[in-house]
Structure formats: C-alpha cells, structure tokens
Amino acid sequence: MSLDQARTIIHKALESGRALQLKPLSVVVLDAGGHVQAFEREDSAAPGRFAIAHGKAYGAVMLGMAGTAQMARAEAQAYFMAAVNGVYGGQVVPVPGGVLVRDSAGAVIGAVGVTGDTSDNDAIAAMAGIEAAGLQGEI
Amino acid sequence: MSLDQARTIIHKALESGRALQLKPLSVVVLDAGGHVQAFEREDSAAPGRFAIAHGKAYGAVMLGMAGTAQMARAEAQAYFMAAVNGVYGGQVVPVPGGVLVRDSAGAVIGAVGVTGDTSDNDAIAAMAGIEAAGLQGEI
Amino acid sequence: MSLDQARTIIHKALESGRALQLKPLSVVVLDAGGHVQAFEREDSAAPGRFAIAHGKAYGAVMLGMAGTAQMARAEAQAYFMAAVNGVYGGQVVPVPGGVLVRDSAGAVIGAVGVTGDTSDNDAIAAMAGIEAAGLQGEI
Amino acid sequence: MSLDQARTIIHKALESGRALQLKPLSVVVLDAGGHVQAFEREDSAAPGRFAIAHGKAYGAVMLGMAGTAQMARAEAQAYFMAAVNGVYGGQVVPVPGGVLVRDSAGAVIGAVGVTGDTSDNDAIAAMAGIEAAGLQGEI
C-alpha cells in the first residue's frame, strides 16, 4: 500500500460520504502489517474517532477477517471476540466499516477503517475509496 | 518438552493441515510453565496469528484445562472466563485448538496452540503433531 | 484546526522534507484536545512511525510545552518526564519534532509531530508545514 | 520473509551458537510488519527468553534501526529510548542481537532477535543465520 494509494482511498471515501450526505467521517488506511499509513478526520467529527477507525481496520488485518465476518463471530461467540481483543490489547472494533484490501492476486495488502455514520454506510464509503484506487475490498 | 519434541509437533501439525487442505496454520508449543518453546506461521496466514495461537495454549497450561473445556465454561459462565482473562493479562483465548500435552504418566508438560482454520480443525492438526511426537494430547 | 489546515501542514512538511533531502518522514496533526486530525507516512518509512510522531505531538498538547522544552526538562529531570509518561499512559516522546501550533492570538490550537530524520530536521519540516498554513509554530 | 527463510535463519543461527560454544540461544524471526514468523528456544535456556528475543527484533523493525544503533541512542539519550518503549507498549529491548534483515534492494523485510549469550555473540549468531538464508543483515 503506497501513500498515494492511501490518499486516494481516503479522499474518495470522504467524497463518497459527502455525496451520500453521511455524517462527518474519519478514515484510516493500514498497511499489510496493521500499521497506520494515513488518516483523516472531517471537521465536526467527534474527537475520539481515530481509535474507532483504527480498531475496525486493525482487527481486519490482524485476523485476516473483514468487519462483517468479525461482527458475525461476535454475535455468535461474544466471549471469543472479547478474548481476541485481550490478545490484541483492546484494539479491535468488530463491526462493518473495517474493510480488507486485496491486490489483484487476492493477497491482503492492508485495511481501511471508516467511522462516523452507520456501520453499513461506513463500509460503503470505504469501498468507494478502495475501488477508486483500483483495489479490491472485502467488507 | 524438548525443542526436538516441539519441532516434531509443529512440523507434523503443519503437514496434517496440508494433507487435510486446511487454511494456512500457525502453531505454538508452550512448556510446562506456559513459556514459548517454538512457533511457526505458514505463508499467507494473517500477521496476527501468533497472539491467537499463544492465547489458546496459554490458557490451557495456566488453568490445566484444554480448549474444549474452556469453551464450555465460557459458554456457561462468560463472566468467569472474562475474569480469568483479567488475572492473566488478557492472554487467554478459550476455544478448541488449545491442546494440553501430557507425558506417559499423565503429567502436563506443556500445551500446543493452533489457529487458522475452524477451531475443531485446528485441534485435529494439533493432535496430529502431538501424537507424532509420542505424547498424549487432551483437546 | 480544520482538516484543510491539517492537510496543508502535512503536505508542505513532506514537500519540505523532499526539498531538504531528508529521510522519509511521517507527520501527524493533533487538535487542541490532543486528538488525531490527520496523518501521513511516506513510502519507505519504518512501519512504527505513527506512534513516534504521535508521541511528539501528544506531549506538546497535553503539557502545553513544545518538544525542545520537553527535551530540556528530560535532560535536567529524567524522572519527571518519566512520571509524566506514567500519567499519560506512556504516550509522550519528549524531543524536538513535536511542535505546538498557535493561532494569531497565541492560543494553542493543536500540535504537529514529525519523525524520520534527526529531531532538529523533523522540527524544521514541521515548521515549514505550519507556516504554509498561515499558523505560528513553537518548536 | 517466507517460513522457509525463517527456518533457515533459526536453524543456522542455532548451529552457529553450538559451533561457537555459546550458551543456549533463543531466536525469533519477525516479518516486515514486526509480526512473529517463527521462534525456537534451545533446551536449558531460561523460560522467559521469547520476550527478550522478541524485544530485540521488534524495536529493530518498528524503528527501522538495528540493535547497535538503538543501544547507542539509549546510551546517549536514555529518556528517549524509554519514551520509545512507552509508545510501543514496553516491547523494545535496545541492545545488539536485534538484527535488521534486508533484501537485495536494501528494503527491510524483517528482523531477527537472538538472546542467550553476550549481546555481541547473539548478533554474530543472528548474522550467521541471515547470511545462510542469502539475505543481508544489519547488526
């Protein structure tokens, strides 16, 4: 994941949020090792949004499992996702809006975390950014 | 648990995973004190798998209770396993794939943690490794 | 601190780093509450640079003291800055490159953290960004 | 960093330790994101050696700075390396034996951490493993 790709993802995700009249969004892009590449928080978003965006994307990279699958697992086995959070220092937010990013061969090259509107709308904005960068997303 | 035994366990668990066409696996071997003896993560496994494998095995050693029994306890009394995680620093992942290892006299000499496929398949791969090393496993 | 201002600060700080042939930089902008507004990490920078950039800027906002003054305090009273880090959860990196941002009336409206080259060069890049945004910096 | 490369590094580092009659060694290999790929601890090594080996390698990856350079920085500015440890959750051990691994183009693809003998001998064993794998090490 290059910085240019990360910028494209963030700018297009935010543009998508404005076009869809979503609430102010915050968008983080993590690399294949779960490390922060870029982040932007729109004006009027709540101050603590970095940690939520990060938590959505971080769990996706570390587990190789996107937010929708994480939520399903949390619904079925809450204690398992609680334990997962224990081993990852409480940094995992298991809901949609954490989107895996794959290259053309299907390898995970990072994740995008979006927060601010409903979890489903957050995921839509993330996908808009990922597709604008010519990459594949898994919500 | 010697390093030779740990290597055998890991290599045979991974071989078993390949033979059964499981997803890429990660395997940790802990000694009788719950300390890491050896670990391997297969190519294409998600980056954060060490912590999950470790959590499965660590709880097994610390509690003297294998993953299946831990999961039963978590299903019946989620708050108890949450409290256990509190006292062990959030390092316990209470699901199958955390397998106790016993010597011929039945004494616990360590534990194996496998993650990557379903919890049940993870436990099958762990048992294949433990048996190949001439030891007894409790899933 | 608006997102537009934060973008200007980051882009101009990175441009300055390229013009001065510094090593790959990472730049974070925090708001007046010490919360992340925006961040970018250049390609080839080490993966863990977010935490260092954040630590430089976070201490500046929380203490109302820029990196140079923090370093002087750490040199004179290492135990004091260690204690400060205790109360702030270990999130403070007390060296230059953590730059306070003030508005035209002198009020602190955030901080910029830059890491990647020497601490002094990091501070120079931060100042280039802050000045390009029409704001005042204190290194 | 593939598992095959990691195995070669570990086995050759341990062989080197035996040839040089070093104390029992523990060797970890981390990938480019600082995540554990493989680890082995020799028989008779102290139980807590995983964390030391990991700490040597983790700091190297996260900072893009090998153990020797970390130690120099810690000697010159102890409070800086203490602060770095704060932002990385206390996981950094800034001494030789944490060796950066680079590919033929010079890009960091991971790190090796060795512990058990003197820090300098640990680094020699790490280099023996890295060179046997056809990679470049920076001590």
Describe the structure.
Four copies of one chain form a homotetramer. With 139 residues, chain A is α+β, with helices and mostly antiparallel strands. Chain A has a single domain (3-138), classed as 2-Layer Sandwich (Beta-Lactamase). Chain A is built from five helices and five strands; from the N terminus they run αββαααββαβ. The first copy, chain A, has a five-stranded antiparallel β-sheet, sandwiched between helices. In chain A, helix 1 (3-19) packs across helix 5 (119-132) and helix 3 (67-76) packs across helix 4. Chain A is globular. The relative contact order of chain A is 0.23. The mean pLDDT of chain A is 97. At the A-C interface, helix 1 and strand 2 of A face helix 1 and strand 2 of C. Strand 2 of chain A pairs antiparallel with strand 2 of chain C.
